[in-house]
Amino acid sequence: MSASASKVSSLSDEQIINRWGFDYYVFKALSAFRDADYTAFTHFTSIIENLVVRPVDGHSDMIVKLRCMQFLSRINNGDKLDLTFEEPKTPLESAVSVLESICRDMSVPPREQERVKQAIIETLIMVCLRSGEFTRAEEVLLRHFSDAEDSAGKKKLFESLIRRRRSSHSVLQLSSYADFKQDMLDFIERLYRVPEPFLLQMLKRSGHPGVSSEPVTSSSQDRQKTSAAAEHHGGVCARLSLHSLRQVYGVLSERYGVSVSFTQLQQELEEEQEQEESPELHLALSETPREQPEPPYAGMTISRLVQEDDSQLSAAEEEEEETQISSPHRIVIPSGPDSDDPEVRTPVRRSDTHNHSSECSPAQICTPARHTQKHNRIVLSSDVEPEDHATSPPSSRRSSRHKQQQKSVHSAGESALVSSPAHPSSPASVRRSDRDTQNQSSESECVMEVEDGGSCVQHSTPARPSATDTQRHNRSVTVSSESEDHNSSPAPQTPRRRSSPSSGGAHKRRRARWQDVSGTHENWSDEESLFSATSGRSSKKYSRKMWTVQESEWLKEGVRRFGAGHWEKIRSSFPFTGRTAVNLKDRWRTMLKLRLV
DNA sequence: GTAGGGTTAGCT
DNA sequence: AGCTAACCCTAC
């Protein structure tokens, strides 16, 4: 079996199709942005955001695309100073962070990077000035403004405007924010030209009116293109063709008494193909073994990260994990067609199984659909051990835990599903508490595999075949709910156990896992979001950033793949943001201590 | 870049 | 006050 076929076989249909959908919506989002239809852009990013919490075929260019979406989302909301993607930064400050990531990953010329950064900063200052936020404008000016000589004039002007508290000036009227947005889009498009998505290609080929006026041809070039696209997008086309061929061949050979088996025929074709080096045959019958390295994991998904056995687990721990998984407190929700995929094991508290919504606070600020997703992911990651439920805790404890569970819905990486800066006033959007921000946040993720050396890029990326391998993306959301009393009542934690470290190991582990999920710490708000922002800013200068479940899972997966100690490699292989290699190392140490791994 | 001890923030 | 996860510092 070739690496290609191997990869394909390891992917579920959902992963592949989600990938197609992802590519399509990224394409559409960019188109919308280009057309200045920012509402549509926000809708598309919202779809993408929701899509990537599902298993998806993590292709190398996916991170690039996500970064671009991340960047443009921040740009799109950059004139809304009360939004934050990454506290305490303004959207445009976050855009600078994303820009740095993009530049790091995609080898952008330093001058271009500086130009874009400067454009963002200048725009941010102008936005601040127009809004009368002079202090913030000054902060930005001091912290970020270029010291280059050619910027000196502007700097002086801004200083002057700030000093004089002037929110109107001809300079401020010169450039519109819309122009700035388009300038940033140009930058992105120069950097990375998103190829036409596979779904659109297929639609065109189907002759669907309105998609393309181009005639659908069956030229070898066209077929080749389609095959290449299919291969690039998961190899399904080749597989399906082969499968269909087999079936048809089987029927026909029986009917006509052909004694040559399909496999034999295939081998002959391959031999011919080798002799003729026909690319079409290559693609059409690509089950031929190829000397390609097996991708470490082709379709890494969030859920797989959570569920996959950790190869580093000791046998005993594996057994323990096994026990947990098969515990009666877990139910298995088939993930659609590939229900054999162990991705969506969803442990549910027995007392709550009657109704998912019972776990959600009335203050739930997510839409029902999002709610469900969040819920699934939360439990999926929570790893609550059976005895937590079985040992029927005192009612106060139960209540406390219940609260935690409610909180968990708002945190623990459960994604940016909760807010959308495009709808700051919508009920489903994040609202900022009037109190000091003690939001909970979560980091949601799209996990993708980009192996060093590009070994996973077996389906070459047309637009950027040699793209930097370690690209990262991040998505998270800061969640705040007025009805969640985060501030006046500190997040309830599992009641403390005063047991010795040795005897309390299980408790500790349980508690830690629960904490991981439930976001009992108030400072889960410093995380950045992929596309969504929260309104409001934290007044805190610094706060600890608790590790989300997803980050921990990335770490586990990273250690599984690269081994403990390769923190920098792990860091760069997953979309961590705001985490250093040392942070990873420390977290791993903590996880070991808590026997989370 | 990593390991490991020390420090601190944020909690009960 | 005590605990602990996250963070910091420093040697290698």
From TrEMBL:
InterPro entries: Homeodomain-like_sf, Myb_dom, SANT/Myb, Telomere_rpt-bd_fac_dimer_dom, Telomere_rpt-bd_fac_dimer_sf, TERF2
Compartments it resides in: Chromosome, Telomere
Organism: Cyprinus carpio
Cellular component, GO, one term: nucleoplasm
Domain of life the protein comes from: Eukaryota
Name recorded for this polypeptide: Telomeric repeat binding factor a
All residue ranges annotated as the HTH myb-type domain in the record: 547-596
Gene3D superfamilies referenced in this protein's UniProt entry, alphabetically: Homeodomain-like, Telomere repeat-binding factor, dimerisation domain
Lineage: Eukaryota, Metazoa, Chordata, Craniata, Vertebrata
Database matches in CDD domains: SANT_TRF
Database matches in Pfam families: Myb_DNA-binding, TRF
Keyword Lipoprotein in annotation: no
